[in-house]
Specification:
Layout (H helix, E strand, L loop, with lengths): L1 E6 L3 E7 L13 E4 L22 E4 L17 H10 L13 E3 L28 H8 L4 H12 L9 E2 L12 E4 L7 E5 L5 H10 L7 E3 L2 E3 L1 H13 L5 E5 L18 E16 L1 H9 L12 E12 L8 H4 L6 E12 L5 E7 L1 E8 L13
Parallel strand pairs: 1-12
Antiparallel strand pairs: 1-2, 2-16, 3-4, 5-12, 6-8, 7-8, 9-10, 11-16, 12-13, 13-14, 14-15
Helix pairs in contact: 2-3, 2-5, 4-5
Length: 380
């Protein structure tokens, strides 16, 4: 599951899952519902790790999740209502009035999700220098060992102490999830940790809302490189109580014909923008024959026409490359994207009343945030 964030005055996160059944409605997805949608909460559905099973999350599965028949959701469903309440405005549903491209400027900056198996911000991304955590503790006259132990216990190797103990990657082989033996610096053993575990949910938010660090900063004789500063800013976002409006799904249940990969992986990237490359109108019969090999369109009786749409979403990937990447233009090296196909169902007024999409978009999140200021991390 890959999550994206796009900055307007808020952040939008799209949870994407590729599904085996075409024409799949969001309302047909099994979902995980939790009591908290704050980004710093361990049960936050957009979190870049497995969410904790402490009884505060509920999995809801459709009555027959393997059925090939469905009626697409109305555009005025509960999730749309949530968004309209947040923005205090009705959502635009007339296709011809919708934008066909948008770009967020300045671009979100490339950074790291500070993987758990590398011990989070204890990781020496520059082998010739101390880690961001060690630099911070030294600069602020903290107990370096205690501070780094705390970092590891929160988002590093020691936070996975309940997992299998290991001394090599081969002991951690998992055919379903890339898993390695994560060890702290200088240790001879560690724990089997999936490589996707990290704080990408925090990096993606910080990369949009905070200006990119461009230059080294020296404090109390300790020089923080831009990548060190990114690590500290990202950590602040991870521990924040920023509230969100969460729509859609995070499903951690069983695999089925609707969701062949109902696994736990959640990746977060900050979105740069999107562009619509094609919008082709067609009759219901033409759509049924072209995409389903059927004589009649079986999904939504209220549909009067179909518009096939192809668009591309662009986002920023992870890197440990140091420096002001946006200002230097190097950020382009970490800008990637993917194409998405839609069948939009229109009524007699050419308003969107439903549709299907591939790959599957399983969720969307709005973060209620104006600005977050980097503070002293001593309390951590």
């Amino acid at each position: 599951m890959r999550c994206f964030r796009f900055g307007f005055t808020a952040i939008v996160a799209l949870h994407l899952q590729i599904n085996a059944v075409t024409a799949l409605s969001l309302n047909d997805d099994p979902i995980t519902t939790c009591t908290s949608y704050e980004i710093g909460n361990k049960n936050f559905p957009g979190r870049g790790t497995e969410i904790e099973d402490d009884g505060t999350c509920t999995v809801t599965v459709p009555e027959n999740p393997s059925t090939a028949n469905r009626k697409l959701e109305s555009i005025l469903n509960e999730d749309i209502a949530k968004l309209e309440e947040f923005f205090k405005s009705k959502m635009e549903v007339k296709l011809k009035n919708l934008p066909t491209s948008a770009t967020y400027k300045p671009s979100p900056w490339a950074g790291s999700n500070w993987p758990v198996y590398q011990d989070g911000i204890n990781h020496k991304w520059n082998k010739d220098q101390p880690s961001p955590a060690e630099k911070y503790a030294t600069a602020f006259n903290l107990n370096v060992k205690a501070f780094m132990d705390n970092v590891s216990a929160l988002n590093g190797v020691d936070s996975r102490s309940s997992r299998s103990v290991c001394t090599s990657d081969k002991e951690c082989f998992d055919p379903d999830v890339d898993t390695v033996c994560g060890m702290r610096d200088g240790a001879s053993s560690g724990y089997c940790i999936p490589t996707w575990h990290g704080i990408c949910h925090a990096w993606a938010a910080a990369a949009i809302f905070e200006r990119e660090p461009n230059c080294p900063v020296t404090f109390n004789g300790i020089t923080f490189q831009p990548m060190d500063i990114k690590a500290l800013v990202t950590t602040v976002y991870d521990d924040s109580n920023i509230s969100t409006v969460f729509t859609g799904a995070r499903y951690n249940g069983y695999n089925d014909s609707i969701d062949e990969d109902a696994g736990t992986e959640v990746w977060n990237q900050p979105v740069v923008g999107f562009k619509v490359y094609e919008q082709t109108a067609m009759t219901l019969e033409k759509a049924a024959q072209t995409f389903y090999g059927l004589p009649d369109y079986p999904w939504n009786n209220a549909s009067k026409s179909i518009v096939y749409t192809k668009s591309r979403l662009s986002w920023i990937n992870e890197t440990y490359t140091d420096g002001g990447l946006v200002a230097s233009g190097l950020n382009e090296n970490f800008t990637v994207g993917a194409d998405y196909d839609y069948l939009l169902e229109l009524d007699e007024n050419e308003e969107i009343i439903g549709g299907s999409h591939e790959p599957q978009i399983s969720g969307l999140r709005i973060i209620k945030l104006q600005h977050l200021v980097l503070e002293n991390l001593q309390s951590r």
